[in-house]
């Protein structure tokens, strides 16, 4: 029976959409700030202009305008295209996080999915372990213990002092006096911290794209294919015990999470807004290093996962998606795919892998829209129908003419002799 293990599955959820050509490395040491360094709250979010004019003196308090999160019905971004001859693979990029109170209404995408020949689900890793129902129950305590640091250590014991001080600042802002989280492994604590921060920023991690695409594809009876890499886990209990007892080099995961919360929250909101309103240019300009990448690399480099073949999962996942995409382009006129934005656009991501194989790749706005493609398909079908009708009409006319000739020959009276 297939079992997706709680602790390891959570690790892989963080690891993807990691696409890394390099193996995980030790996190660089965090330098201690000077004693007279400003606090986090006092650090400006933007560097001042080189020749700025001093603000006039005033007794009024200076207020900083926060970036507002978009709400209501929004269209979302356009679609990337990969083309081979007359066949097109359309790709909708997902993004995390997105505005919490946004309603997504992509009518163009809905119509495209409804007439697609095939739909590709987001790529995934499937971890299989042959255990029965009672075996699952026995794994639950181990999975829960694996969330905590080995030997009952707390974050103050496993994090460098300077990093722990930064953690306390962000924890106070977003988590308050939560004591239980101090026992968690750094990557678990970092994930929970980011979750709370996103809620305060009115953002959410939820993937709103694939459930909608999947629902329409099933309703219209479209073929759905999931590019995936499967790993057989023959010793789930031993794997969890090792994961529980051995350390994970996840200091870099915590550092990357704190760095984003200290420096990237405004841009995070801007990216979410850009995705919602379909502003691809802003989305591409606001490139970022996801903390999920650092967390995923740390986990994939752990001994428990590395010795069981998890190390090269990102590369294998890209290779499998590329294989499925190429096969779809060769055999189907219209394919629709859903993929994470970073997994799609990173230098070692899906689009570059397809370019390397010689496929034409178009960004949103560079080629025909789905509506243009639908009109072209309808016109081609109508032209083919007209040709068929014309050919059928010609055949009928010819048949009628032959019948008339035959009838004329048989009905013509024979002239009388000597007439």
What's the SSE blueprint?
Layout: H1 6-15, E1 72-74, E2 80-84, E3 87-94, E4 98-99, E5 102-104, H2 107-115, E6 118-120, E7 124-128, H3 133-145, H4 155-158, H5 161-174, H6 186-200, E8 203-204, H7 209-219, E9 223-225, E10 228-232, H8 236-245, H9 251-263, H10 265-277, H11 280-285, H12 291-300, H13 303-306, H14 313-331, E11 334-340, H15 341-345, H16 350-356, E12 360-362, H17 370-411
Parallel strand pairs: 1-5, 3-11, 6-9, 6-11, 7-10
Antiparallel strand pairs: 2-3, 2-12, 4-8
Helix pairs in contact: 1-12, 2-7, 3-8, 5-6, 5-9, 6-9, 9-12
Structural class: alpha/beta
User: What is the H-and-E element order?
Assistant: HEEEEEHEEHHHHEHEEHHHHHHHEHHEH
Could you say which overall geometry the principal axes of the C-alpha atoms support?
A: globular
Tell me the number of helical segments per DSSP (H or I, 4 or more residues long).
17
* Low-pLDDT regions: 1-65, 132-142, 414-419
Mean pLDDT: 77
Give the proportion of residues in helices. Answer: 40-55%
End-to-end C-alpha gap: 100 Å
Radius of gyration: 30 Å
Main sheet: which strands, in order across?
9-6-11-3-2-12
- For the secondary structure, the number of strands is 12
